[in-house]
Amino acid sequence: MPLVIQPLLIRSLNQKLPSILTLGGEYGLIQCRRFAFKANARSTQSDQNQVHINTAPIEFTANLLAGRKEVETDGLKGAALKALRCNDTTPDTESQQSQEHLPFEVKLVDKKQRQCTKELRPKVELRPEAALRKRYIDPYLQLSKPRLTVLVMLSAICSYALSPYPATVLQLLSLTVGTTLCSASANAINMGREPNFDRQMIRTQARPVVRGIVTPTQAFKFATVAGTFGTSILWLGVNPTVAFLGASNIALYAWLYTSLKRKHIINTWVGALVGAIPPLMGWAASSSLSHPGAWCLAGLLYAWQFPHFNTLSHNIRNEYKNAGYVMTAWKNPKLNARVALRYSLLMFPLCFGLSYFNITDWYYQLDSAFVNAWMSLWAFKFYLQQKRNYSKEIYNNKTEFNKGLAIANVYARKTFWISVLHLPAVLILAILHKKGRWDWLFEDEKTMQA
Asked: Which residues cross the membrane (predicted)?
């Protein structure tokens, strides 16, 4: 069983009391408090003013630090550091000698017995297909950011389905495969460029390049192959305009956006442009980009990313800051919440434009208004709370500020998860309300009347 250590350092209880390091978990903590109470009772009034009990948790000291001169000390603290060292390099004689000064027993593990246990442990051998998948398929699949890639692909397909001109199976398949490969290429380059920064964030430290499963060079080679095949499929299977948009999106995301992430908050607006291009690709597969409906769909994807990402980054703003990413969430928290609300409200006129330009029927305004209001309501609550938190009377009061920040965290989290549901809901409703979608239900009635 692992040994749980909770050190408590009591300093300056009185002039005669030396520093004490008490180990042993909760029981030791109680004993130290009792001891400190008795010592205080015996102290004079002047001595009581000098009493200081440090109850802050002390993190485990690394083995490398244990051997340094600044931590080498005699007495109880030095004995504890030597006896509880987590390695097999300490001689047995030294460990036994260090235990003589400890007020508790430390049971050492026999090194030979540990080695025998490791050798007797059954080795699990994966089947060839499972080993192949674990070594090659899964790492490169993770390089493509599959969830983000699927979202990009679906946004292109939904735009293709909403275009007024007829679709073909060959174009649909080419658009799907080409867009997926282009997105995978951009994401792989992004991961290959940022392993040193990604390892500093919890949400990105499990990426294959960070873990060393795939090297940056291998990520770039994968991106080159995926990008080449993706743009070629779009060129041959769809048209040159879509292929150009796909290649532009790779450059925009992998180079411009990735570079700006560590320089200026404008990177969020550039990243939103990356999300607006796939709907244009889907529309351009069968229709002209001069149609205003294409830009309404592109604007919808562009605006959606701000309430989605700004609320996501709010709750991990310190991770972005520590990793060196310049994000609005920590550079300007009030602007971060205001932008999330602003683009949430922009959803209403964009959805109205789809009906106005005859992409959807007018019943779409009822359904989409309900979904847009749902997200805008929580974005508004998030904005009001952040505006209150950073007002002069609250910001200078740390207690009230922390309470308000906890409420803002809850509002941001709810807005984020609502945005996850919002986008597919708006796109699916648009497809269901496409102009002329349900005319076949009334064809018989019109024929009978004629």
From this structure: 233-256, 268-286, 292-312, 339-357, 363-384, 415-433
How are beta strands 52-54 and 20-22 bridged, if at all? unpaired
Contact 340, 408 (CB under 8 A): no
Give 199 or 348, the one with higher predicted confidence: 348
The answer for residues whose C-beta is within 8 angstroms of residue 423's C-beta and 6 or more apart is 151, 301, 304, 308
Sheet of strand 8-11: strand arrangement: 20-22, 8-11, 52-54
Give me 176's structure tokens.
């799907």
Higher-confidence residue of 362 and 7: namely: 362
pLDDT of residue 418: 96
CA pair distance 344, 348, nearest whole angstrom:
8
Six token digits for residue 34: 């009792």
Can you give the C-alpha Rg of the chain in angstroms?
Answer: 31
* CATH architecture of residue range(s) 141-290: Orthogonal Bundle (1.10)
| Residue pair 178/246 in contact by the 8 Å Cβ criterion | yes
**pLDDT classification of 265: cutoffs 50, 70, 90:** very high
Task: Check if the beta carbon of residue 322 is closer than 8 Å to that of residue 200.
Answer: yes
